[in-house]
Amino acid sequence: MGGRRGRIRGNRRKVGAVTQLPYEGVTNSYPAVEILNPDQVEQIVDGALKILATKGMRFLHEESRHRLIAAGGKADKAQQTIRFDREMVLEYLSYAPASFTLRARNPLRDLIIGDNNIVFTSVGGPAFCSDLDKGRRPGTYAELCDYLRLVQSINVIHQEGGGAFEAMDLPPLSRHLDLYLAQFTLLDKNVQAYALGRDRTIDCLEMTCIALATDRAELKRKPAVLGIINTNSPMQLDVPMSEAIIELASAGQVSCVTPFTLAGSMSPVSLAGTLVQQTAEVLAAVTLVQCVRPGAPVIYGSFASNVDMKSGSPALGTPEYTKMTLASSQIARYLGLPSRSSNTTSSNCVDAQSAYESEMSLWGSVMGHVNLVNHAAGWLEGGLTASFEKLILDAEMLQMMTQTLEPIEVNEDELALATIAEVQPGGHHFATEHTLARYQTAFYPTLLSTRENFESWEEQGAQDTATRANTIWKKLLEEYEQPEMNESILTALNEYVDVRKKEIAQN
């Protein structure tokens, strides 16, 4: 039950004044919560296949349409749509692996995606960053690098999420190169690609080869790159995402296909209807992936939630989001694919709402046996902001969930019958040998929470959660140690970036 993989350090890691759990893979051996019965899962998948056969999916990318037509898809040139026979979809689906390993710069941080493994990633893609000191703002490259240092330092985060926020002080057409350089030099964990279009994806593939001291042939055998592929719900895939799919799949790397379906706006208002559409969009993209390269890894991604019918704004971390996360992971298992979800909240600041909405999202992910929890730490404001304090708050929640997955041991020593007999009625267990032998490691050591009484808490400044989180991320930055990198690899990475920046400037 709740086993562990790849533990790097001992039972606990002390970083300066910050105590955290060791870096380790997380395996969830508890039974998955399945909210659909088998017949309901089949109805949803059958509905998705019917939609693909009758309505089809619009592909704005011409090469993608040509590949799908060659594989047996039926084209409507006027609508740029491809219709898929059920047999075609199921055949290509059968080529996709149920699990795979992603390489990291540090082999001890390689990731297993699939089965009962859970991978937690940091937030990726927001336009803004925020902290208590400077508020919400466009982020700089220096601030982005600090965020990456924190991601490296927080053990419960397994993967960097493709750039915590945009570095707005850098040119938009080349800033992905600076991101990749920072990812590979400041972390030794696996990192996500900035998979927006062909060129950005190719740059990630090439720099990954340099950073891992490998080549494309070996990379194809041992994947290391994962790109998030977002469909344009409803039922459309744009050019940049299609280009990324083709480059990733051709190289044997991972496409995490994730429709952004908001019930009531980009998908039907009913949850079952949203799940049908989501599944149809995923299966269409999976078919494209497997047309390009049979056997290329792919993930069933879910980002299904609802809109607020009063404002029209996305509602995140809702009961509907949790239910669709549980259902989506169940559908993914039925299809034989790994699954992805996210830690979400609509809150604009690090407050109670940001905690309980994230908790709803995370529990749906963990109890549903989701394999990749994207944006697991740092997400704020519906994904528009990466928060330094929320990164710490989420790390605490992730640690607590990880610890909850540890099974209760039942053996002669743990049953403690002799100790129970030893303590007199009305006495206490503080000074027993059983307690003294294990008190330092018996219980979860908090990262962020405070357990002082009111008077002690008040004497120490009466700090709320966000204020304590602010102190912790600054301490982690002070203690950060950059992973070692071979000088020749560092030189090669910098040379690649310099050459590509010149090429981009000339075009």
Query: With helices defined by DSSP (H or I, 4 residues minimum), what is the helix count?
Result: 18
What is the strand content?
A: 15-25%
Name the strands of the widest sheet in spatial order. Answer: 1-4-10-23-22-19-17-15
Q: Tell me, what's the shape?
A: globular
Could you name the CATH topology of the domain at 4-32 and 94-404? TIM Barrel
| Beta-strand segment tally | 25
CATH class of the domain at 4-32 and 94-404: Alpha Beta
Distance between the termini: 56 Å
What's the mean pLDDT score? Answer: 95
Largest sheet: 8 strands, mixed
What percent of the residues sit in helical stretches (DSSP H or I)? 40-55%
- Would you identify the CATH architecture of the domain at 4-32 and 94-404? Alpha-Beta Barrel
Q: CATH superfamily of the domain at 4-32 and 94-404, called what? A: Trimethylamine methyltransferase-like
Q: What is the gyration radius calculated from CA atoms?
A: 24 Å
- Spans of 5+ residues with little confidence (pLDDT < 50)? 1-11
- The chain-level structural class is alpha/beta
